[in-house]
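Running this now, will post back.
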Amino acid sequence: MSGEAEGPGSGEDRLIARHFRPLARHPAAFGLADDAAAFPPPAGCDLVLKTDPIIAGVHFLADESGDAVARKALRVNLSDLAAKGAQPAGFLLALALPGDIGEAWLTAFAAALGEDAEAFGCPLLGGDTDRTPGPLTVSITAFGTLPHGTMVRRNGARPGDRVVVTGTIGDAALGLRLRRDPGLAARWTLDPTMAAHLVARYRIPQPRNAVAELVRRHASGAMDISDGFAGDLAKLTRASGVRAEIDLRRLPLSPGARAALAAEPGLLATIVGGGDDYEILCTLAPAEVAAFSTAAAAADVLVTEVGVIAAGDGPPSYSGDNGRLQELERPSYSHF
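Update: finished.
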């Protein structure tokens, strides 16, 4: 992402100079005046790299505001860094803009992106902009740092470990349904605060970077929950060569999700298998659970133990209110 100052130059140069150069204050970005950034990682640290694009009509509704799109685009990548135990260090931005994106939308997008970059300590270092005949696409490549060899991978879960999650599960999937059909709020007996909370959880994720260091210090395995709790848990246990036993009664649910589930019990599949939670799923040795939970609470992050890792291969098993194992017809969101 390079561009000349406002004035002579291409329309792309002027767009970058107007909206994105003010965000690129880190010395490694060279004021977006070059073709690449040069970032020196801290001594003794590894870089953790992640790219997770979002596309209109797939990851957000086509009429979404520029500020909400910006925040979601950066935060979904920050969520992955947190689950690896890494601290944010910077990001690259690639924008594919359809012709109907106007100046007001871009202004809101850039302002929100700059606010989040500052709030999360993750500066813009470069990227590119293009015009597209297809849907709006925002692709962010974020990178973080952590001490050499300490990244928490999916494959570290061991028999006897406890399965824990941050925050609450299923809010975003329910929020998407509410965005598409606001009348569901009445059917689910939601008050306005509950409905607003569910929709907000879909529109603007809350990545758990406040507990990234705790994940790195205490977790044996971890990943963020982006495609649904059940599906992402299956990925983690498959990578680790273990299985999980989950008590669905212990899943942390917000008041809105509880109300919706009470009104429509079939929503359990949506809550457990829907995407966009952007919470952290991790496994901890029993001796680590108390310290992890206490420190997370001090950072104002809820942590809930929901199950245990067992020996052997196979998909996770789930017990419900009647104590019997339950089969989940749709364990995960999938693009394919």
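The two ends are 31 Å apart (CA to CA). More later if anyone needs it.
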